[in-house]
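User: Assemble these into one structure.

Assistant: Restating your components, then the assembled model:
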Amino acid sequence: DTEVTQTPKHLVMGMTNKKSLKCEQHMGHRAMYWYKQKAKKPPELMFVYSYEKLSINESVPSRFSPECPNSSLLNLHLHALQPEDSALYLCASSQEYSTDTQYFGPGTRLTVL
Amino acid sequence: GQQLNQSPQSMFIQEGEDVSMNCTSSSIFNTWLWYKQEPGEGPVLLIALYKAGELTSNGRLTAQFGITRKDSFLNISASIPSDVGIYFCAGLPAGKGAQKLVFGQGTRLTINP
């Protein structure tokens, strides 16, 4: 089983709202990732968690706040977003960070009004 | 940083035709991955390549890890309508320390029935 699940599938929020994206995997992977993808572009890395610790933050604005409550779960907390933050947000996981194949979830389509 | 040049950017073919796309870089990679992405969904792993010269098939798909470790190609034989989508190559660069996955810009495949 190589499944990564993400909820919700779609999210519409105003610029003053607070919302969270959720990601889960049960493959025993120790690395989890958040990516942002704009239309017709490849995914762009945002954050990497390795063994539940934040390893990489790609200079992401603080209105995006990641959290890794345990080895199977990854959250992305959103607050005071801008319309340009509208995108497909993808979660991925791999056995270990950097050396292993990444498996992606189906994504959350976020629209900021 | 490392870049992957993926070509062609788009392909318009007839059903039943064979398809070929490739990725090249000036840097050496340890792993090559090929993903397919359909609208509104996350990238789905098609083939993973871990060794220079490796040739791997997945049904009608065949991919190779170039001998120089700087390129990879993906072939699709006898295309069918469900092959439509965007195909991304991705690679894990060689080098010391943790490396981030590098993506090509994608090849958009359109099939005329």
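Residues 41 and 71 of chain B are 26 Å apart (CA to CA).
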